[in-house]
Amino acid sequence: MSDLTANRPNPAHRRPIRSYVLREGRLTAAQRRAFDELWPRFGADWRPGTLLDLQALFGNAAPVYLEIGFGNGETLAQMAEANPDRNYLGLEVHRPGIGHLLLELDRRRITTVRVLRHDAQELLRDGLAAGCLAGVFLFFPDPWPKKRHHKRRIVQPEFVTSLARALAPGGLFHAATDWEPYAEHIRAVLETADDLFQNSAGPGQFAPPPEQRPPTKFERRGERLGHRVRDLIYIRR
Ligand SMILES: C[S@@+](CC[C@H](N)C(=O)[O-])C[C@H]1O[C@@H](n2cnc3c(N)ncnc32)[C@H](O)[C@@H]1O
User: Fold this and answer.
1) Can you tell me whether residue 124 is helix, strand or coil?
2) Is pLDDT of 1 > 50?
3) 120 in ligand 1 pocket by Cβ < 6 Å?
4) Strand extents, DSSP E, 161-207
5) Which of 100, 126, 218 for mutating ligand 1's site (highest number of atoms within 8 Å of CB)?
6) At 99, is the secondary structure helix, strand, or coil?
7) Beta strand ranges found along 71-192 (DSSP E)
8) Ligand 1: nearest atom to the Cα of 97
9) Which of 30, 51, 184, 205 might form a disulfide with 201, Cβ 3.0–4.6 angstroms?
10) In the predicted model, what is the mean pLDDT of residues 95-121?
11) Which one from 3, 36, 45, 142 is the annotated catalytic residue?
12) pLDDT value of residue 69
Protein backbone atom coordinates (compact mmCIF):
# COMPACT_ATOMS: atom_id res chain seq x y z
CA MET A 1 0.00 0.00 0.00
CA SER A 2 1.37 3.44 -0.90
CA ASP A 3 1.93 6.07 1.77
CA LEU A 4 -0.61 8.78 0.92
CA THR A 5 0.99 11.28 3.30
CA ALA A 6 4.49 10.98 1.80
CA ASN A 7 4.24 14.03 -0.48
CA ARG A 8 2.17 16.23 1.76
CA PRO A 9 3.99 19.28 3.09
CA ASN A 10 4.99 19.07 6.71
CA PRO A 11 2.52 21.35 8.57
CA ALA A 12 5.44 22.87 10.49
CA HIS A 13 6.82 24.18 7.17
CA ARG A 14 3.52 25.45 5.77
CA ARG A 15 3.64 29.12 4.86
CA PRO A 16 1.70 31.26 7.32
CA ILE A 17 -1.53 32.84 6.07
CA ARG A 18 -0.91 36.58 6.04
CA SER A 19 -3.63 39.17 6.56
CA TYR A 20 -1.85 41.59 4.21
CA VAL A 21 -0.20 41.77 0.82
CA LEU A 22 3.08 43.59 0.92
CA ARG A 23 2.79 46.37 -1.66
CA GLU A 24 6.07 48.15 -1.48
CA GLY A 25 4.90 51.47 -2.91
CA ARG A 26 7.34 54.32 -3.36
CA LEU A 27 8.69 56.27 -0.45
CA THR A 28 8.78 60.02 -0.94
CA ALA A 29 12.14 61.70 -0.36
CA ALA A 30 10.82 63.00 2.99
CA GLN A 31 9.70 59.51 4.03
CA ARG A 32 13.11 58.07 3.09
CA ARG A 33 14.76 60.73 5.21
CA ALA A 34 12.33 59.94 8.04
CA PHE A 35 13.51 56.32 8.07
CA ASP A 36 17.13 57.49 8.30
CA GLU A 37 16.68 60.25 10.82
CA LEU A 38 13.56 59.46 12.85
CA TRP A 39 13.57 55.65 13.02
CA PRO A 40 16.25 55.68 15.76
CA ARG A 41 13.85 57.82 17.86
CA PHE A 42 10.54 56.08 17.19
CA GLY A 43 11.38 52.69 15.71
CA ALA A 44 11.17 49.47 17.68
CA ASP A 45 12.70 46.11 16.94
CA TRP A 46 11.42 42.69 17.81
CA ARG A 47 13.30 39.45 17.36
CA PRO A 48 11.00 36.39 17.15
CA GLY A 49 11.73 34.16 20.12
CA THR A 50 12.01 37.12 22.51
CA LEU A 51 9.48 39.17 24.45
CA LEU A 52 9.23 42.87 23.73
CA ASP A 53 10.26 44.83 26.84
CA LEU A 54 7.64 47.58 26.77
CA GLN A 55 8.93 49.42 29.81
CA ALA A 56 12.41 49.67 28.28
CA LEU A 57 10.93 50.64 24.91
CA PHE A 58 8.91 53.56 26.29
CA GLY A 59 11.13 54.39 29.24
CA ASN A 60 8.15 54.49 31.62
CA ALA A 61 5.37 52.32 33.01
CA ALA A 62 2.37 54.17 31.54
CA PRO A 63 -0.36 51.96 30.03
CA VAL A 64 0.37 50.72 26.51
CA TYR A 65 -2.19 50.77 23.68
CA LEU A 66 -1.47 48.87 20.49
CA GLU A 67 -2.78 49.90 17.07
CA ILE A 68 -2.67 47.13 14.48
CA GLY A 69 -2.38 48.22 10.83
CA PHE A 70 -2.27 51.99 11.36
CA GLY A 71 -2.07 52.75 7.62
CA ASN A 72 -0.75 56.30 7.28
CA GLY A 73 -0.79 56.73 11.08
CA GLU A 74 -2.83 59.95 11.19
CA THR A 75 -5.32 58.41 13.63
CA LEU A 76 -2.56 57.07 15.84
CA ALA A 77 -0.83 60.46 15.97
CA GLN A 78 -4.14 62.14 16.88
CA MET A 79 -4.91 59.61 19.63
CA ALA A 80 -1.39 60.01 21.07
CA GLU A 81 -1.66 63.79 21.02
CA ALA A 82 -5.02 63.66 22.81
CA ASN A 83 -3.80 61.18 25.46
CA PRO A 84 -0.28 62.17 26.53
CA ASP A 85 -0.49 59.93 29.64
CA ARG A 86 -0.63 56.78 27.48
CA ASN A 87 1.97 54.95 25.44
CA TYR A 88 1.11 53.78 21.93
CA LEU A 89 2.71 51.00 19.96
CA GLY A 90 1.92 51.10 16.24
CA LEU A 91 2.24 48.03 14.06
CA GLU A 92 2.29 48.27 10.29
CA VAL A 93 4.05 46.49 7.45
CA HIS A 94 3.62 49.12 4.73
CA ARG A 95 6.74 51.31 4.59
CA PRO A 96 5.24 54.49 3.05
CA GLY A 97 2.61 54.56 5.82
CA ILE A 98 5.30 54.13 8.46
CA GLY A 99 7.34 56.95 6.90
CA HIS A 100 4.24 59.15 6.94
CA LEU A 101 3.67 58.47 10.64
CA LEU A 102 7.33 59.13 11.54
CA LEU A 103 7.07 62.58 9.96
CA GLU A 104 3.79 63.24 11.72
CA LEU A 105 5.20 62.26 15.13
CA ASP A 106 8.14 64.59 14.60
CA ARG A 107 5.93 67.45 13.38
CA ARG A 108 3.60 67.15 16.38
CA ARG A 109 6.50 66.61 18.84
CA ILE A 110 4.97 63.39 20.11
CA THR A 111 7.21 61.26 22.33
CA THR A 112 4.83 58.50 23.44
CA VAL A 113 4.60 56.44 20.23
CA ARG A 114 6.85 53.59 19.09
CA VAL A 115 6.56 51.96 15.68
CA LEU A 116 7.23 48.37 14.80
CA ARG A 117 7.32 46.92 11.29
CA HIS A 118 6.14 43.37 11.76
CA ASP A 119 3.19 41.05 11.26
CA ALA A 120 0.84 41.82 14.14
CA GLN A 121 -0.37 38.24 14.27
CA GLU A 122 3.12 37.01 15.13
CA LEU A 123 3.93 39.74 17.61
CA LEU A 124 0.64 39.28 19.43
CA ARG A 125 1.06 35.51 19.54
CA ASP A 126 4.72 35.30 20.56
CA GLY A 127 6.21 38.68 21.42
CA LEU A 128 4.16 40.18 24.26
CA ALA A 129 4.06 39.33 27.96
CA ALA A 130 0.69 38.21 29.29
CA GLY A 131 -1.52 41.11 30.37
CA CYS A 132 0.89 43.81 29.18
CA LEU A 133 -1.57 45.85 27.07
CA ALA A 134 -4.30 48.25 28.19
CA GLY A 135 -5.96 48.25 24.79
CA VAL A 136 -5.78 47.12 21.18
CA PHE A 137 -7.17 49.08 18.23
CA LEU A 138 -7.96 47.51 14.88
CA PHE A 139 -9.39 50.14 12.58
CA PHE A 140 -10.60 49.19 9.11
CA PRO A 141 -8.64 45.95 8.75
CA ASP A 142 -8.37 44.54 5.21
CA PRO A 143 -11.84 42.98 4.73
CA TRP A 144 -10.83 40.18 2.32
CA PRO A 145 -14.36 40.11 0.83
CA LYS A 146 -14.02 37.00 -1.37
CA LYS A 147 -15.03 33.78 0.33
CA ARG A 148 -11.82 32.01 -0.63
CA HIS A 149 -9.88 34.79 1.12
CA HIS A 150 -11.86 34.82 4.36
CA LYS A 151 -9.09 32.82 6.03
CA ARG A 152 -6.82 35.87 5.56
CA ARG A 153 -8.97 38.09 7.76
CA ILE A 154 -6.91 38.96 10.80
CA VAL A 155 -9.75 38.34 13.27
CA GLN A 156 -9.86 34.58 13.76
CA PRO A 157 -10.27 32.45 16.91
CA GLU A 158 -6.45 32.13 17.30
CA PHE A 159 -6.09 35.91 17.03
CA VAL A 160 -8.69 36.34 19.78
CA THR A 161 -6.80 33.87 22.00
CA SER A 162 -3.56 35.88 21.52
CA LEU A 163 -5.45 39.11 22.12
CA ALA A 164 -6.95 37.82 25.35
CA ARG A 165 -3.52 36.76 26.59
CA ALA A 166 -1.85 40.10 25.83
CA LEU A 167 -4.63 42.28 27.28
CA ALA A 168 -4.79 43.09 30.98
CA PRO A 169 -8.12 42.35 32.73
CA GLY A 170 -10.42 45.28 31.94
CA GLY A 171 -8.39 46.04 28.79
CA LEU A 172 -10.21 47.01 25.64
CA PHE A 173 -10.36 45.69 22.10
CA HIS A 174 -11.80 48.26 19.72
CA ALA A 175 -12.36 47.33 16.09
CA ALA A 176 -14.08 49.33 13.37
CA THR A 177 -14.94 48.41 9.81
CA ASP A 178 -17.02 49.70 6.92
CA TRP A 179 -17.53 46.18 5.54
CA GLU A 180 -20.75 44.86 7.07
CA PRO A 181 -19.98 41.15 6.54
CA TYR A 182 -16.61 41.66 8.26
CA ALA A 183 -18.33 43.47 11.16
CA GLU A 184 -20.61 40.45 11.52
CA HIS A 185 -17.63 38.11 11.32
CA ILE A 186 -15.72 40.01 14.05
CA ARG A 187 -18.80 40.03 16.24
CA ALA A 188 -19.36 36.30 15.74
CA VAL A 189 -15.75 35.41 16.60
CA LEU A 190 -15.69 37.65 19.69
CA GLU A 191 -19.11 36.53 20.94
CA THR A 192 -17.93 32.92 20.76
CA ALA A 193 -15.16 33.93 23.18
CA ASP A 194 -17.58 35.40 25.72
CA ASP A 195 -15.74 33.71 28.58
CA LEU A 196 -12.82 36.05 27.70
CA PHE A 197 -14.51 39.20 26.39
CA GLN A 198 -17.58 41.19 27.27
CA ASN A 199 -19.33 43.21 24.57
CA SER A 200 -19.41 46.80 25.89
CA ALA A 201 -22.67 47.45 24.03
CA GLY A 202 -24.42 44.31 25.26
CA PRO A 203 -24.45 40.81 23.75
CA GLY A 204 -24.62 40.82 19.95
CA GLN A 205 -24.69 44.64 19.68
CA PHE A 206 -22.48 46.99 17.71
CA ALA A 207 -21.12 49.92 19.73
CA PRO A 208 -22.40 53.48 19.23
CA PRO A 209 -19.81 55.52 17.26
CA PRO A 210 -17.34 56.58 19.97
CA GLU A 211 -16.33 60.24 20.08
CA GLN A 212 -12.74 59.47 21.04
CA ARG A 213 -11.93 57.58 17.81
CA PRO A 214 -10.56 59.99 15.20
CA PRO A 215 -11.70 59.21 11.64
CA THR A 216 -9.24 57.21 9.54
CA LYS A 217 -8.22 57.42 5.88
CA PHE A 218 -9.96 54.14 5.03
CA GLU A 219 -13.04 55.16 6.94
CA ARG A 220 -13.38 58.28 4.78
CA ARG A 221 -12.96 56.15 1.68
CA GLY A 222 -15.68 53.78 2.90
CA GLU A 223 -17.99 56.70 3.60
CA ARG A 224 -17.45 58.07 0.08
CA LEU A 225 -18.56 54.67 -1.17
CA GLY A 226 -21.69 54.91 0.98
CA HIS A 227 -20.60 52.21 3.44
CA ARG A 228 -21.94 52.13 6.96
CA VAL A 229 -19.27 52.10 9.66
CA ARG A 230 -19.51 49.66 12.56
CA ASP A 231 -17.60 49.91 15.83
CA LEU A 232 -17.10 46.89 18.05
CA ILE A 233 -15.77 47.38 21.58
CA TYR A 234 -15.04 44.43 23.82
CA ILE A 235 -13.65 44.38 27.36
CA ARG A 236 -11.25 41.69 28.55
CA ARG A 237 -12.86 39.95 31.52
C1 LIG B 1 -7.31 48.74 5.00
S2 LIG B 1 -5.84 49.36 5.73
C3 LIG B 1 -6.45 50.42 7.04
C4 LIG B 1 -5.41 51.39 7.50
C5 LIG B 1 -5.86 52.34 8.63
N6 LIG B 1 -6.17 51.62 9.85
C7 LIG B 1 -7.04 53.17 8.20
O8 LIG B 1 -8.16 52.92 8.68
O9 LIG B 1 -6.86 54.08 7.37
C10 LIG B 1 -5.25 47.97 6.64
C11 LIG B 1 -3.80 48.11 7.05
O12 LIG B 1 -3.44 47.03 7.90
C13 LIG B 1 -2.12 46.62 7.61
N14 LIG B 1 -2.01 45.22 8.06
C15 LIG B 1 -2.76 44.18 7.64
N16 LIG B 1 -2.42 43.05 8.27
C17 LIG B 1 -1.43 43.39 9.12
C18 LIG B 1 -0.65 42.64 10.04
N19 LIG B 1 -0.84 41.33 10.19
N20 LIG B 1 0.30 43.27 10.75
C21 LIG B 1 0.51 44.62 10.58
N22 LIG B 1 -0.21 45.38 9.73
C23 LIG B 1 -1.16 44.77 9.00
C24 LIG B 1 -2.00 46.80 6.12
O25 LIG B 1 -0.65 46.98 5.70
C26 LIG B 1 -2.82 48.07 5.88
O27 LIG B 1 -2.03 49.24 5.91
Assistant:
1) helix
2) no
3) yes
4) 167-177, 197-199
5) 218
6) helix
7) 87-91, 113-116, 133-139, 167-177
8) 27
9) 205
10) 98
11) 142
12) 98
